[in-house]
Target: uroporphyrinogen-III C-methyltransferase
Amino acid sequence: MNNQIIKYSRKINHSIERFKIPKDIRHLTMEKAQPSGADKKGKVLLVGAGPNDPELLTIKAYQAIQKADVVVFDRLVGHDILDLIPEHCEQIYVGKRCGQPSLKQDEINQILIEQAEQGKRVVRLKGGDPFIFGRGGEEALALIEQGIQYDVIPGITAAIGCAASAKIPLTHRGVSRSVTLVTGRIMEGAFNSWSGLVSSGQTVVFYMGLEQAQSIQQGLLSSGLTSSTPVAIIGNGCSAKETTYITTLDELPMLAISLKGLTPALIVVGEVVALRDELMAELKENASLPL
Model:
């Protein structure tokens, strides 16, 4: 485990030297996180951990983790990233994950507030990006209400990272000119905007939508999308366990049933999915070539 930490630390430090980031910029995040002498409160950094590949973690996010007094993290943050947290740093697990038991959002907000009021440098570590289905905005507003400083360190959101890893371009000239990100959780209630998801040249990515596959299919079909529209389900994207399943909108519910329990998972709907075979074939053909 320690060897893994050393490996990732060396890679990130090498990247810093390679790109010759000025020292004043290199330490900007942590300098901003220091409380002033007049204000004993700490600061909270809402940090995106990306799609669970430590090598896709930003340098700024890595630095924040290294300088944190406490890291408050969700279930979607993988062990390889948690291994980068220094031993001296307190870790607080809040278990936030779709459909799973966890602390309520108000309770998480209170933890962040209490830790910051003790003058600590707090990293709120979230899978993907804090402001894309991560409730980062809610947490930021709660901190502002209590007079606590915060900042946001973006991460690669799952739609971007996982689709790229699966060799599915979310946009492609002549095929798709727009992308819409939708949370599958809205399907549990009334959702009347299906027509906005089926315009020509559009890709739609559903987060947390596997259990709502039937509703997704019916909504898209009723709004004019054809049953032959290509669909991909990407499970455990950007990890060693990544799996990608290609189907059509017609067959989506049956495939989703067979994949019950696959989590985290994304559903990608659109003609760009059909490009994957060609892109994968080219990749396999050139697999023996040096990088």
The chain has eleven helices and ten strands.
